[in-house]
Amino acid sequence: MKTILSTLVLVFAFIFKVSANDPAFENAMKTQIAAMKSIQTPAESQTVTNGFLRIAEAKTTEWLPLYYAAYLQSIAAFRFEVNKDEYFDQAMELVTKADKIAPNNSEITALKGFIIMGKLSVDPMSRGQEMSPLAMQTFGKAIALDKENPRATTLMAQMELGMSQFFGSGPEKACGLARVGLELFAKEEAKVTENYLLPTWGKDQAEQVAGVCK
């Protein structure tokens, strides 16, 4: 908790310093991204989310703070005992704002699909007919926008695996996508540096799908 509180101090300092091409943005983002790794409770998740939102308010032309806030809200819905629909709806609102800043962005589109998949998981029986095709379509768009995006391919693999389990069909398509996703993650890891701000999450999800194929 002490680490997360210290990030708020840095975020507030950033708000007063931010200007065009100011490295304070990168420093504040790096601090928040690091804080994501220590989240253990819904309250801590909301604290880090709020930090990203403060950065977004100060830097209105940047999509990444809104993206990470949306990601944290969706992860909290999957991970904690919270009002899942409320969290997923908040996540979708935030990622939609990010989409207006950076339209046709593969990362943003993939996260939209992830949130839709989350909404589907809350009540698959009543939502499956509407949301399953929408999630598949959204992941397909994310892949088309950037075939090198490992999250887009991995999330499609997860969706394909779920569909195959629901309909009792083979997981071959999901397995193939998971293997491609792992290859893409390896490429991504090779170019990630200490100052890397872009999303890197999702490898564990690709490994989980690939594990089913063994």
Automatic annotation (TrEMBL):
It comes from the Bacteria. Keywords: Signal. Residues 1-20 form the signal peptide. This is Tetratricopeptide repeat protein. The lineage of its organism: Bacteria, Pseudomonadati, Bacteroidota, Cytophagia, Cytophagales.
